[in-house]
């Protein structure tokens, strides 16, 4: 596992743990949740961005906003 993938994996695991403990998950923007799920399914921000037809930096920013909202 490369360093970039390992860092992404750790960040995604952190987000999963936070989401599982949220009482107010419905307050999160659905687009952010879709982005998160797509990243998990694709295993990469770049592939998820391609699938969602957005740029990789935009998707990374969405992931960061989700993390900050938790």
From TrEMBL:
<protein>
    <submittedName>
        <fullName>LysR family transcriptional regulator</fullName>
    </submittedName>
</protein>
<keyword id="KW-0805">Transcription regulation</keyword>
<dbReference type="InterPro" id="IPR000847">
    <property type="entry name" value="LysR_HTH_N"/>
</dbReference>
<keyword id="KW-0804">Transcription</keyword>
<dbReference type="InterPro" id="IPR050389">
    <property type="entry name" value="LysR-type_TF"/>
</dbReference>
<keyword id="KW-0238">DNA-binding</keyword>
<dbReference type="InterPro" id="IPR036388">
    <property type="entry name" value="WH-like_DNA-bd_sf"/>
</dbReference>
<comment type="similarity">
    <text>Belongs to the LysR transcriptional regulatory family.</text>
</comment>
<dbReference type="Pfam" id="PF00126">
    <property type="entry name" value="HTH_1"/>
</dbReference>
<dbReference type="InterPro" id="IPR036390">
    <property type="entry name" value="WH_DNA-bd_sf"/>
</dbReference>
<feature type="domain" description="HTH lysR-type">
    <location>
        <begin position="28"/>
        <end position="70"/>
    </location>
</feature>
């Amino acid at each position: 596992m490369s360093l970039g993938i390992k860092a992404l994996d750790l960040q995604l695991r952190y987000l999963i743990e936070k989401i599982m403990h949220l009482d107010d998950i419905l307050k999160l923007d659905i687009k952010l949740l879709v982005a998160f799920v797509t990243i998990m399914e694709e295993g990469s921000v770049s592939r998820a961005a391609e699938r969602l037809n957005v740029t990789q930096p935009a998707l990374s920013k969405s992931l960061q906003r989700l993390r900050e909202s938790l």
